[in-house]
Design goal:
- By secondary structure, the chain is of the alpha+beta class.
- It has six helices and six strands, in the order H-E-E-H-H-E-H-E-E-H-H-E.
- The chain is elongated.
- It comes from Bifidobacterium bifidum ATCC 29521 = JCM 1255 = DSM 20456.
- It is found in: Cell membrane.
């Protein structure tokens, strides 16, 4: 029975993994779904103590590994070799309960021809808030392009604040 649960959840997990250019998202969600199904299987098998340990491990891994992933993303962005253009950093503030929907909204708004989404990271703030930071590179020379792209983000009621910044980038050998 457990094998059937694992394979079924595998299909669900595969559905949340998205690849857009060089960006891959949804791996953490897929792994969490699979691990949660394992905890459910343990509970169904009468192994409540093992299920409690597994649930605790899942929660700790998700909470503790997020800052490490953000640091890796920041380091990778800083070390990347860019062509000449503009790098935009977009920060969107929302409630933690709206994070997934807002992250998808931001990604969809910026994943357009002419823009290269380099990273998306979320940082927890006090008062149950999250700031989603997205770094986008483009060869376009007008801020009007980024403003029109994030118009839907800005007007979404769940978005509590938006800040963006532009930086000129040059080719690095």
């Amino acid at each position: 029975m457990a094998a059937q649960v694992a394979s079924g959840i595998g299909f669900l997990g595969a559905g949340v993994i998205l690849k857009q250019g060089v960006s891959v998202s949804g791996l953490n969600t897929a792994a969490t779904l699979w691990a949660s199904a394992a905890v459910g299987t343990l509970c169904g098998s009468g192994m409540e103590a093992a299920a409690a340990i597994g649930a605790t491990a899942i929660m700790l891994a998700n909470m503790m590994l997020r800052p490490i992933g953000a640091a890796i993303d920041a380091r990778r962005t800083a070390q990347s070799h860019e062509a000449e253009g503009i790098r935009y950093t977009l920060e969107v503030k929302c409630l933690r309960k709206d994070e997934q929907a807002i992250r998808a909204l931001v990604f969809n708004a910026l994943h357009q021809p002419g823009f290269i989404v380099q990273s998306i990271a979320a940082s927890d703030l006090p008062d149950d808030l999250v700031v989603i930071t997205t770094v986008v590179a483009t060869h376009m020379s007008s801020n009007i392009d980024i403003e029109s792209s994030i118009e839907t983000v800005i007007t979404t009621p769940e978005v509590l604040g938006v800040k963006w910044d532009a930086e000129q980038i040059t080719a690095v050998d």
